[in-house]
Amino acid sequence: MNPIRTFITAFTGFFAALSIAACGTAAEPVVTMQATILQCTETSLLLEPIEPNNSSDRISTSVVGIPIVGKDGSKIQPGDLKAGQTVEVEYDGYIRESYPAGITCSRLTVTGSQPDGWVNPIEGDDFFSAERDPDSPYGNMPSLGVEYNTGETVSYTAAATGTASWFDNGEGVCVDSILPVSPDSRGIIPVISREKGYDSITLLFSKEPDLFTVRCWDWEEFAETWQETDVIPVKTNDSVLTIPKKDTALLLEIQAEWEQGTILYYITIE
Fold first, then answer.
1. Is pTM, for the whole model, over 0.70?
2. What is the 3-class SS of 187-235, one letter each residue?
3. For residue 149, what are the domain limits?
4. Chain-centre distance of CA 137, in angstroms?
5. What is the CATH classification number for the domain harbouring 82?
6. 148 with 202: CB under 8 angstroms?
7. Are strands 236-237 and 211-218 parallel, antiparallel or unpaired?
8. Could you report the per-residue pLDDT of 210-245, keeping only the tens digit for each?
């Protein structure tokens, strides 16, 4: 298993204050933000506020289950959103302290797009890039990012990639990784700390697989029995995984399949 570059965002763990008065049974306040889409997946967006924002120049939000419409009110699917489009974001006024900062969007309206010649400011930025190192044996294969949160803060890291087989553009690549419980690999696989209170993780593939499966083991038992230990059930809801409530270190293996091949990814929970 080759080392991969891993980016982990540190968080202060508190809300940026946006003081909003409320009383009685008044409806939840709605705040709007004008922004440009910098990056999008089927489940989330990375935004740049158009007006100066004291919290962050990069803001992420989930788009799962929220209404997305055009200026004429027509419905838009998350997969139809594109970098460079301008949007009006409705949210509750709270901005979570992280990088990128996080908000909970309740409605998204596509208002237009940046003019011709617009240059995406995150192009070439390794922190936001889903592209592989071209010199890596995994160079042309999809990567897997992992977003984990407590409902108040959101962090991101990249999963370690293991054994893989891939055939594309007339070329085939097979990568045999060392076992994930070997001493050499344990320092490579990213760790999600249970002490932070994270109760779920979201899988963010750079290319959505045709299907994926998740297996989970007690790390120490796995190391002793070489996969003969019982698999710990993991509750899944689309790409969101509920972290099993165990006191021991856990190893998660995600096996993703595409028409071009199969890749194994690994995450540690401690």
1. no
2. CCCCEECHHHCCCEEEEEECCCCCEEEEEEEEHHHHHHHCCCCCCCCCC
3. 144-269
4. 23
5. 2.40.50.140
6. yes
7. unpaired
8. 999 998 888 877 776 665 667 888 888 888 888 888
